[in-house]
């Protein structure tokens, strides 16, 4: 689909000092290292807005809104003047302008986009967050800025869109790109990268369940897919180093009304700016 690049297989790495610290804490106490891991797992990295996103940032109408259900604030971006609205949901450590290339093409065909910096992301306040905060933010934005025709989510944003639909978010079509799927797979991968014993992943999920209620596995995207009849386009790269392609394939398998697009050599983020991917999204929405 695109030419190979030298960095398409790069993935986010946990700094060595954090791994060493985790192992030392694990030696002292399983409980302490679970707390340590949970803190890291829920703390996104705030990146500086890259040049390619500056135009969307400058041309958007921005407003900080309250999300009462979680007592948090999120920065919302309204972009374009089209009659129909599309909600864009970024992934972990992303920003409300991250899907700018998709947003630009949507505006050209008559749509307007609404996006947001999830709690503790971008311009939104806070230091830590979790997917339930993403979902709550979507539901509140739907109340204040909806209704939406379409929702497009990347990575954790894809899982968020699927779970929001399960909770009653009404849209006509959905697009999820590089989405995670099974929550246990995500925590298992994180703990593995931390160099910790697999049992810590189980303890991590149990800690979150005590704090937020419910079962973490209930937030797995394939379970939400089972309950959705909304036409959904699943896009995933075969070489995604951060979210294995099996996640997208499994979500698609569970959809009643799903379509799957697999790409090559685009990785986890370049996929958001690929011409053929964006063309597929536009055609899926229009048809």
Automatic annotation (TrEMBL):
Peptidase S33 tripeptidyl aminopeptidase-like C-terminal domain location: 225-281
Keywords recorded for this protein, A-Z: Hydrolase
A Pfam family per the record: Abhydrolase_6
Protein name (Swiss-Prot/TrEMBL): Alpha/beta hydrolase
PANTHER family reported in the protein's UniProt record: ALPHA_BETA-HYDROLASES SUPERFAMILY PROTEIN, HYDROLASE
Limits of the AB hydrolase-1 domain: 86-179
Gene Ontology molecular function terms on file: hydrolase activity
Organism: Flavobacterium taihuense
Keyword Lipid metabolism: no
